[in-house]
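User: Could you check the structure of this?
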Amino acid sequence: MGKIIGTSGDVIGRYERGDIKPSIDVIAKIADALEVSVDYLIGKTNLILDKETLHRIEDISKLKDENKNFIFNLIDMALGDIKAKRAYS
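Assistant: Sure, the predicted structure tokens are below.
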């Protein structure tokens, strides 16, 4: 891990033991290395988004509200259909 984020294994060990706290920049590098969000890394969420899903969400966030609502309605319909199929199977 140390090599991946540009520090030593000793420093990583000190982070793990709670001897020192990493800076936000280091936390971001660790999250990137582990392919998780900073929120996940620090325990604010248990949601792990793969890169493809994250890119799709980023693309949706750039749309106009009316287009976002259209996509969210499609997602809601698909999820409802999947949940209904699960309930009856």
